[in-house]
Amino acid sequence: MFEGTKMGLLKKLFTIRGSGDAHKDGNQSVDNYSSVPYDYQFVIQTIQVYWTQYLDSLFLLRFTHNCENYFSRKDFVIPRLRMLKRAIEHVGGAYSFTDSTINVQIVIYPADIDKIIQKIESPVYDEGFIKNHCDSLDYKLSFLTAAKDKLTIIARWRHWLYPYEKRLSAEILKPFNQHCLELEEQIESTSDS
User: Fold this and answer.
1) How far is residue 22's CA from residue 61's CA, in Å, rounded to a whole number?
2) CA 34 to CA 36: how far, in whole Å?
3) Do 13 and 49 meet the contact criterion of CB atoms below 8 Å apart?
4) What is the pLDDT along the chain (193 residues), one digit of tens a residue?
5) Residue 185: is it exposed, middle or buried by C-beta count within 10 angstroms (0-12/13-18/19+)?
6) Which superkingdom (predicted)?
7) Prediction pTM value
8) Are 62 and 116 contacting, i.e. CB atoms less than 8 angstroms apart?
9) At 82, is the secondary structure helix, strand, or coil?
10) 168: which DSSP letter?
11) Would you list the DSSP string of 18-79?
12) Separation of alpha carbons 47 and 96, rounded Å
């Protein structure tokens, strides 16, 4: 399919060649794509795709309460951002384009991508996810009246988080566990009276 390339298309595309003059000119505006090497054209087009995927992933990372969605999206976006960084380095170290979804001129540098990756890998997003997870639990419990049903939902929310506990620090999990204990005590005290 790729005519003998074992590592696939990405290795072929992101291998920087020093002979092409398109690679030497840095951030440039290209009007006539017929004079630009095909791999360079492809990288230019994929930068915008990677950027759109990053924005979609960022929205999910910030607002989801679903454990599987959060961690799978986090696992997806970090390698994509690294590929975006590599693509930007391939086209000269900076790239600008107009994002059609928000109609803003965007200039991306590899250092910007490094900062984004560091922030996503930092505890900030995990803390936000745990807060969303707690809020969704409270929302679900607000519709239930039976104590048994509420305790079942709390157990389910804990169960959904269990496979991912090793990826979160104990400090981040502490508010969720504390919240669950308080809810259980509150439910048991109201059901006893």
Assistant:
1) 36
2) 6
3) no
4) 444 444 444 444 444 444 444 444 444 444 444 555 567 778 888 888 888 888 888 888 999 999 999 999 999 999 999 999 998 888 888 888 887 777 888 888 999 999 999 999 999 999 999 999 999 999 999 999 999 999 999 999 999 999 999 999 999 999 999 999 999 999 999 877 6
5) exposed
6) Bacteria
7) 0.71
8) no
9) helix
10) S
11) SS-GGGTS-S---S-GGGS-HHHHHHHHHHHHHHHHHHHHHHHHHH---HHHHHHHHHHHHH
12) 10
The letter for the amino acid at 121 is E
Do residues 142 and 97 lie in contact, with contact meaning Cβ atoms separated by under 8 Å?
no
Rounded CA-CA distance 56/134 in Å is: 23
And the tokens for 156?
């389910």
The total number of residues shown for the chain amounts to 193
Tokens representing 141?
């419990």
